[in-house]
Specification:
By secondary structure, this protein is α/β, with parallel strands linked by helices. It is built from 5 helices and 9 strands.
Length: 178
């Protein structure tokens, strides 16, 4: 399986206030996110983290990565310091990626796009950064944890929830998650 996630912001106390995450402190926040991740992701699965993984002064990135299941790829976000982007625990790290999955071209970036490669040919843009606050566009999904129940999500789940949220449009629009 392949999963997507973004904006975990491990060890970053700003998310408790700015994003109103339901935790009294960062210890409980981080424990819950690790538990949610590992409840879904198996060791042999792949995870594409679309940026803003952890706070720059949050500790050892490799130690945190070792506690999370799966083979992990990073698409670098605006809050990912060099120490995060160069951690040995990533299978890859880049600012942008395109992958084929289930017959779909996925365009992966931390930032949401207005247009993206092969948009007219039904490619799909997965992003983070907006913390569930942007109005969805057709075939564009915010995979940040604030928009996805604080856990990784599969492409199938995104596509299924899209069809269920707007059955009249053939499944091309993303659900509103906030």
């Amino acid at each position: 399986m392949i999963y997507f996630i973004s904006d975990t912001h491990f060890s970053d106390p700003r998310v408790l206030r700015i994003d109103r995450r339901p935790f009294p402190d960062m210890v409980e926040h981080d424990v819950a996110l690790i538990r949610n991740w590992n409840a879904i992701v198996d060791e042999e699965d792949e995870v594409w983290h679309l940026g803003d993984f952890m706070f720059a002064r949050g500790g050892d990135c490799d130690q945190l990565l070792s506690r999370l299941n799966g083979r992990k790829h990073l698409v670098i976000g605006n809050n990912d310091p060099v120490t995060t982007a160069t951690a040995a625990g990533w299978a890859s790290a880049q600012h942008y990626a395109e992958i084929l999955l289930g017959g779909h071209l996925l365009v992966l970036c931390h930032y949401p796009f207005r247009t993206w490669n092969k948009m007219g040919k039904k490619s799909i843009n997965l992003h983070g950064h907006s913390h569930g606050r942007l109005k969805p566009m057709p075939r564009q999904f915010d995979v940040g944890i604030d928009a996805r129940g604080l856990r990784p999500v599969s492409l199938q789940t995104l596509l299924t929830s899209s069809r269920q949220s707007r059955p009249d449009d053939g499944g091309d629009s993303a659900p509103i998650d906030r």
